[in-house]
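Checked the freezer inventory, then went back to the computational side. Two predictions to log before the end of the day. The first one is the construct we discussed on Monday; recording sequence and tokens without edits.
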Amino acid sequence: MKHLLFVLFLLSGGQLMAQTVFSVQYASQADVKVYVVKYESEADLKVYKVKYASEAGNNDGKWFFVDYASQAGKKIFFVDYESQADLKVFFVNYSSEAGWKNNSKKQLMY
């Protein structure tokens, strides 16, 4: 029984580490305020939006958007102005392009 509980704990922990995000309605509900930049060179993080939760990365820019806040590892709010943001992101077209450009901001998504 102990072994079964340990395995279940490990499996659930792995899912929690994945970059599952939920976009909230209000800034006060968010863990991180995000601004989407127009140019890749301005970004702290290049993000690839994956199609399945199993493809989500471990803080490497591969995000899966969940349907409910309770399923999310991080709750984010998209701000209108760069000055309001904790994190600047640029959405990329390919999974291999995702990743951090500014490692000093990496702790925001843990």
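The second is the one RB wanted added to the comparison set:
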Amino acid sequence: MADIVATLQRELGDCVCTRPEVLAAHRRDSWVLSELFDLEGRPAPLPGAVVEARSTEHVSRTLALCRKAGAPVVPFGGGSGVCGAIVVPEGAVVLSTRRLDGLRDLDAESLTATFGAGTNGMEAERAVEKQGLTMGHWPQSIELSTVGGWVATRAAGQFSTAYGNIEDLLLDLEVVLPDGSVLRTRRTPRASAGPDLRQLFLGSEGTLGVITEVTLSLRRQPQARRGQAFSFENLESGIEPIRRLMHAGWRPPVVRLYDAAETSRLFPEICPEGRALLILLHEGPTGAVDAQAAGVAAICGECGGEEVEDSVVDTWLETRNHVPSFRALLERGLILDTIEVASTWNRVAELYRNATESLRAVPGILIASAHSSHSYQSGTNLYITFVARPEKPEDRAEIYRECWRRTMEVALAVGAGISHHHGIGRVRRDVLSGEVGETGVALLRAVKRALDPDGLLNPGALLPE
């Protein structure tokens, strides 16, 4: 790989970095197993170089030169992914988008904002807030992730029940294909010009192209905001009012239902022991917020909900992104993860029961719990959490894989989706055929071969080996 590094340095100058600390910072994303392997002294290999692209032309030139040399390239945004989409092959070229940043255009009349793909999510939100606007997209990783990464991983935000996910906000994009050619989609609210090419890159995890610019549809800052909270006998009984309020046409941006275990762990003073907690946040014109809150309260009351102090919503807003690092918990001998799946309403209760029961049979399991955080007309997601402490620390990787295997097995058995918004990476790639079928995997392989015939762009991610 020394030849391609020398070529890139000659062609791109100081955009190419080989400093050890920079290489080490771009070896992998934030996948739990990668964190564990670091802790155990077997880290991911170092890349041969990091190209810190400052323009679309830099990206184009890098990909063209690497294709000619047969060198693998791994796109890298914020590195906040948690499914192992980035584990850099030894000596590969990492193509960082972080210098492709900043607000490039804001149209307050059309409510659109164009960002360089490497723009940090919180910086992007602050840029539009100055104009009284918001993206309405609040992933937990907003302070770490990039707008291009949101598209590449098909991300969801905490306010998605009203405002939609990244595919609903994406208006147009610029992407560099593996041969260095540049695709720019049209900035239009809707089109019927054949298949939507944006969909190729939503969720592609850097395997089909490198996103360089993103235009998102914005909204105005809400006039009013109001929180609500209700307790229910259990998670299953709390699902029904969510289904009913969605079917009634109410759309609170935040609709989060925690099972009893998570309620007692996160909000110990809010609910009576053993009950589930539903928190809601309403936003919009004052009259609409009041009407929606009243409608939701009526539905929750009909379903046996008991209203609790709404200050819990303020607590959640203040602390929603404050979570312990995986490393801190791994250092205590634990192994853990969150697995987000999705289901139609008729399967949610079965999915919850079967997944948590199966996880509780894993040796050393301490926690098997869940909450719902993104709901739709036809169903909702479940965020399933597991924490285990194996008797032997060296068994943690095996226990981790067993917890994932059981959860994926349950999801497929009940007809649920295997991923809601974290993506596939390496942790789910071997069960992808269960979601899209062998025909679907073959189709994805065909698209990959057409765009990247040598398989050089982010090898090992998304597609089963």
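For RB: The chain has five domains: 2-96, 103-220, 224-319, 326-425, 428-465. The chain has 17 helices and 18 strands. Let me know if you want it refolded.
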